[in-house]
From TrEMBL:
One of its GO terms (biological process) is methylation. The gene is ada. The keyword Transcription applies. Keywords: Activator, DNA damage, DNA repair, Metal-binding, Methyltransferase, Transcription, Transcription regulation, Transferase, Zinc. Residues 116-186 form the HTH araC/xylS-type domain. This is methylated-DNA--[protein]-cysteine S-methyltransferase. The keyword Transcription applies. One of its GO terms (molecular function) is sequence-specific DNA binding. InterPro entries: Ada-like_dom_sf, Ada_DNA_repair_Zn-bd, Bifunct_regulatory_prot_Ada, Homeodomain-like_sf, HTH_AraC, MethylDNA_cys_MeTrfase_AS, MethylDNA_cys_MeTrfase_DNA-bd, MethylDNA_cys_MeTrfase_DNAb. It catalyses: a 4-O-methyl-thymidine in DNA + L-cysteinyl-[protein] = a thymidine in DNA + S-methyl-L-cysteinyl-[protein]; a 6-O-methyl-2'-deoxyguanosine in DNA + L-cysteinyl-[protein] = S-methyl-L-cysteinyl-[protein] + a 2'-deoxyguanosine in DNA.
């Protein structure tokens, strides 16, 4: 008889064992298997030899598996982000990092013997967007750099690998909420790109403080930029300030494990209640988490859990205002606008600070 963990959100053991035999990637991040004969726990997609059903124990997360005395597998690395357990994703991410300016297409995927539909599903599952969308964003990073340095529009377009000016303008506006020529007309509030180990971020700042810090693939980024333009009374321009340099330096130290506190001056654009929630988020130490209920109680509004959740979701200064440290009351990783895979990685990074 299979031993089952006490987690109520796990299905029956026959379903889990079938997924293990099939190495079903749909179960990434949802279940892990502990092997009683080896004392090791694995992802269900692990390429190792499969155990017998009676030697399996099932867990909803790595913490539960370790609490039961199991060690992480060295082949599938179940303590890492779920995307790290899928070879197809790891392969393509490495290729994208090596060739960020390449115009990736489905033909390239076929040449690498990857089925485009499989790739699309895998990246959507882990990152909330397709591989080709991520590749397009990587090319736009070069365009932002060119425009910031004063290049002409056509030079930036070609640097980003776009054949048509209209295609370049459309892709740029989808990211920023404004066409590139409008961004160049901005005033004292400037936008620039910052690279991080978890992807590119747009940082908007003036000479005194940071106004916005978002991962570039966040769907609400264009709307956030439009709202910020209204707050500051004009369009956001392209450029860099000392606050951008400070933010980039603090992020580098944070990801390197040297700075649990992202000490950057910020301007919080929101209602008094939203600002109260965001300031409370900044008080959560790295390596710790809070539930929405705990956060609501902490600001003296224990019945305002839903309002707290909404305020958390509308935070526009990622990482510096650490909304990723809020989880479900049952300990699950609830929604994160930057992607659950990032939330998983950020919490894992911050365990070293605990």
């Amino acid at each position: 008889m299979d031993k089952v963990s006490d987690m109520l959100d796990l299905p029956d053991t026959d379903t889990l064992y079938a997924a293990l035999l099939a190495r079903d990637p749909a179960w990434e991040g949802r279940a892990l298997v502990g092997v009683t004969t080896t004392g090791i726990f694995c992802r269900l997609t692990c390429p190792a030899r499969k155990p017998l059903p009676q030697n399996c124990r099932w867990f909803a997360d790595a913490d539960a598996a370790q609490a039961a005395g199991f060690r992480p597998c060295r082949r599938c690395h179940p303590l890492g982000a779920t995307a790290e357990g899928e070879p197809l994703v790891c392969d393509l991410m490495a290729r994208l990092e090596a060739r960020p300016d390449h115009r990736w297409s489905e033909s390239d995927l076929l040449a690498l013997r990857h089925d485009p539909s499989t790739v699309r599903r895998a990246f959507k599952r882990h990152f909330g967007q397709s591989f080709l969308d991520m590749a397009r964003a990587a090319r736009l990073r070069g365009a932002v750099a060119s425009l910031t340095k004063g290049s002409t529009m056509i030079e930036a377009q070609l640097d980003a690998g776009f054949d048509s000016a209209s295609g370049f303008r459309t892709a740029f506006a989808r990211l920023f909420g404004h066409a590139p020529h409008q961004m160049r007309q901005g005033g004292g509030v400037l936008a620039d790109w910052i690279d991080t180990p978890l992807g590119g971020m747009i940082a908007i700042a003036d000479d005194r403080a940071l106004h916005l810090l978002e991962f570039i693939d966040r769907k609400a980024l264009p709307d956030g930029l439009r709202r910020l333009s209204a707050h500051v009374g004009g369009r956001v321009g392209l450029g860099r300030t000392a606050v951008h340099d400070l933010t980039e330096s603090r992020l580098f130290d944070y990801f390197a494990g040297r700075a649990p506190l992202l000490d950057v001056p910020v301007v919080l654009h929101g209602t008094p209640f939203q600002q109260q929630v965001w300031r409370a988020l900044q008080q959560i130490p790295a390596g710790q988490t809070r539930s929405y209920l705990q956060l609501a109680a902490g600001i003296g509004r224990p019945t305002a859990t839903r309002a707290v959740a909404r305020a958390n979701a509308t935070n526009r200064i990622a990482l510096v205002v650490p909304c990723h440290r809020v989880i479900g009351a049952d300990g699950t990783l609830t929604g994160y606008a930057g992607g659950l895979w990032r939330k998983e990685r950020l919490i894992a990074i911050e365990r070293s600070y605990a």
